[in-house]
């Protein structure tokens, strides 16, 4: 077997997945046709600044633009202005960015082209509360969503019904200009209307759907928010709205493409690879337990896959907050996985967010193997207690197994890679 250092191997797998979603390569392949009027570039998401820099490199005409990204995720641009704001909880800088984006697309004509660079994270970066609501209301909604355990599709259906920019409203504001959206998907199933809550791409999710999810996940939202969602004023534009008739949407990078690239890198290094799915959802700790069971089966019985093998999966799990620990969905997944493979030899795993950040700390995720839980115990850390307290970051930090690649400039959701020797 060619793998000598599992961490180096798994890092190479992560890097291959990220490289497949490189903005410059993917944008070059999806450039829109020029129109005789102005070209305005707008955007939002954790990869939007790198997408803007890439667009500047490959577009040979005049442009003007504005994109918003997370603090620390900026990139050097000459003609497109970069604004940084808070993620995952919105702030006043995001509120100002939303206002300026809506202002940027005012007064355009049918001769003008708007290029929208959209990536995951845009939901939090684009607070723009509906009339009668405040930034505090939108923050309260976001915090309730993050703690609810609801899938991302349900979250974004709720978000777009309390906003003046999400759910296609930014594209509607640009009418009659032609809007071409270049989308990097971090959504299971790759529905571009759900990425960043679809500021330029409407979807069919209704107020009734939003209210059903609020009830199903027991969310406690401010009375003002509930009153708004219960009113017709909250209705978002429908996909058949004539204002969207001439627009285009291009999915330029996704988890599926990145997982295939990761698998190819494994095979290049002499390890067979299998992809379970690019759209796995569910409670992170439960998904971690299932992955651990599969890894144990392969390690002990060489089924359903013969070892050595790399097992890959993508998608976006959720975390229902039970306490105020430090962590994110990838580290929580991996802590449950580590508990599930405790004491087993030859199993090594990495779980990481392809944007470089898992939760609110500076790590993308973490590494684990069959010795992780024992090493935590030796460091005075009880893995099960840490999992119960949503404190996976602290657990992995104690044994030096956090994975910190820094901002990657793209975002195609989570990568889980399990090497079984």
UniProtKB/TrEMBL annotation:
<dbReference type="InterPro" id="IPR038614">
    <property type="entry name" value="GK_N_sf"/>
</dbReference>
<dbReference type="InterPro" id="IPR025286">
    <property type="entry name" value="MOFRL_assoc_dom"/>
</dbReference>
<feature type="domain" description="MOFRL-associated">
    <location>
        <begin position="10"/>
        <end position="229"/>
    </location>
</feature>
<dbReference type="InterPro" id="IPR039760">
    <property type="entry name" value="MOFRL_protein"/>
</dbReference>
<dbReference type="GO" id="GO:0008887">
    <property type="term" value="F:glycerate kinase activity"/>
</dbReference>
<dbReference type="InterPro" id="IPR007835">
    <property type="entry name" value="MOFRL"/>
</dbReference>
<dbReference type="Pfam" id="PF05161">
    <property type="entry name" value="MOFRL"/>
</dbReference>
<dbReference type="InterPro" id="IPR037035">
    <property type="entry name" value="GK-like_C_sf"/>
</dbReference>
<keyword id="KW-0670">Pyruvate</keyword>
<dbReference type="GO" id="GO:0005737">
    <property type="term" value="C:cytoplasm"/>
</dbReference>
<feature type="domain" description="MOFRL">
    <location>
        <begin position="310"/>
        <end position="414"/>
    </location>
</feature>
<dbReference type="Pfam" id="PF13660">
    <property type="entry name" value="DUF4147"/>
</dbReference>
<protein>
    <submittedName>
        <fullName>Hydroxypyruvate reductase</fullName>
    </submittedName>
</protein>
């Amino acid at each position: 077997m060619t793998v000598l250092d599992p961490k180096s191997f798994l890092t190479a797998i992560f890097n291959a997945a990220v490289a497949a979603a490189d903005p410059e390569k993917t944008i070059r392949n999806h450039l829109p046709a020029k129109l005789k009027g102005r070209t305005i570039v707008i955007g939002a998401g954790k990869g939007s600044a790198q997408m803007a820099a890439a667009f500047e490199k490959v577009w040979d005409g005049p442009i003007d633009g504005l994109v918003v990204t997370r603090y620390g995720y900026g990139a050097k641009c000459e003609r497109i202005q970069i604004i940084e704001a808070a993620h995952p909880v919105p702030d006043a800088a995001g509120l100002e960015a939303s206002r300026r984006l809506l202002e940027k697309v005012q007064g355009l004509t049918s001769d003008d082209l708007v290029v929208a660079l959209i990536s995951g994270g845009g939901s939090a970066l684009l607070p723009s509360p509906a009339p009668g609501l405040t930034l505090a209301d939108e923050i309260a909604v976001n915090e309730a969503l993050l703690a609810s355990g609801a899938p991302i599709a349900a979250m974004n259906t709720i978000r777009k019904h309390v906003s003046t920019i999400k759910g296609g409203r930014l594209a509607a504001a640009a009418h009659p200009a032609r809007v071409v959206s270049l989308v990097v998907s971090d959504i299971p199933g790759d529905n571009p209307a759900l990425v960043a809550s679809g500021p330029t791409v409407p979807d069919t999710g209704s107020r009734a759907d939003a209210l059903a999810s609020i009830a199903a996940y027991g969310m406690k939202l401010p009375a003002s928010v509930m009153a708004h969602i219960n009113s017709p004023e909250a209705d978002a534009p429908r996909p058949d709205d004539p204002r969207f008739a001439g627009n285009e949407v291009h999915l330029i990078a996704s988890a599926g493409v990145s997982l295939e690239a990761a698998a190819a890198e494994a095979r290049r290094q002499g390890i067979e690879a299998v992809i379970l799915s690019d759209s796995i959802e569910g409670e992170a700790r439960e998904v971690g337990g299932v992955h651990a069971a599969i890894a144990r089966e392969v390690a002990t019985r060489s089924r359903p896959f013969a070892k050595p093998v790399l097992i890959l999966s993508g998608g976006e799990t959720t975390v229902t907050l039970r306490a105020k620990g430090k962590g994110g969905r990838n580290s929580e997944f991996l802590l449950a996985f580590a508990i599930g493979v405790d004491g087993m030899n030859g199993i090594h795993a990495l779980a990481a967010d392809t944007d470089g950040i898992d939760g609110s700390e500076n790590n993308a995720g973490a590494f684990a193997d069959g010795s992780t839980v024992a090493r935590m115990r030796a460091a005075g850390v009880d893995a099960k207690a840490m999992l119960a307290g949503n404190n996976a970051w602290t657990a992995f930090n104690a044994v030096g197994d956090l994975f910190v690649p820094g901002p990657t400039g793209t975002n195609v959701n989570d990568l889980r890679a399990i090497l079984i020797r």
